[in-house]
Amino acid sequence: MKLRGTLTVASFAFVIALPSLSAAQPLSTYHVTELPSPADRACVVTALNDAGVAAGACAVGGGVIWRDGNPVSLGLMSGGTYTQPAAINSAGVVVGDADANFSPRPQAFVTTPAGLVNVDPTNGGNARAIGVMDNGFVFGNLTKSLSGNTSSWNVMLWAPDSGHPGRYRENSLPKLPGGDPKYAGASATQSNKVGQVVGWVTTTVIGQLGGFWNNDAKHTVAALQALPGGNHSIAWAVNDLGQAAGESNSPDAFIRAVLWQNDAAHTPVDVGMLPGDTASVAHGVNSLGQVVGISLTGTYPTFSGQRAFVWQNGAIQDLASLIDPADGFWTVDAVVAINNAGQIVAIGTMNGRWASILLTPIAQ
What is the CATH number of the domain that holds 49? Predict the structure, then answer.
């Protein structure tokens, strides 16, 4: 159930001690750990926390969580057929979207010792959770109109109600002002441990740009500008220092990976692409300033190939080239996330067989 309410900045009054960019270490080599699917279904990794615990979605049935490389089912909501994890916090609490009550509409869920809980069961529409803080605050997207219009979606903060366990207070985060409010849109893609959120915003003035919601009392929203010469951007990830990563167009690429710094201007930094490629997208960034994503070959919309990359301090490398040869010859086709320990979850292929994998840096 939901209870409406307001939140103040005091809700986020804690500090995380994290290394600065100057403490970033040289790019590592990595050891590969396969994340096996249960015997009866194929699962793809979708989230990772700082302890190396991963979560994933499965082609059939509920999602899974991997602890020490072993998959454990997350189960389903009552009357549901799927569970798709989107994020996992330090305590191993998973959020995402799932169906329920024999309805195809996605609902935001959170895992508890008693099973999956619907974060906002009376929302009357579609809801997706995209992030969860260590204090249990959940971020996501919600529409109640079922119209399908972009402007009908709202970025949400669901706050646990301390007086009613299992209930959440529903709070809408602001949309970017300006232009015709009927066409103002917003969507969240990821949040961090201190309550900052990224995604994208649209207005009739700016078109579509990446969005950054701060953790102040008003959850102030700012547009993340495109790279010089570009006019479109999306943020897919944010680290605990407030740096965002995603994509922008540019004069020489349809999409190009970008890192937005945590200065007042959210200055965009061109991450680039691997040699010989034509486009790139960033999907993750950690508090060491390491960015992971994919580098693409070909032209939109028929890109002919892709490789996962890791970037740090201006250097970009093919992630597969950094895997310890003792672990076999892997290609890394897609990358999902990187944690503050430098571990990466990705999709790799070896000898024609694909697998979800966890890449752990080897001590230098």
Answer: 2.130.10
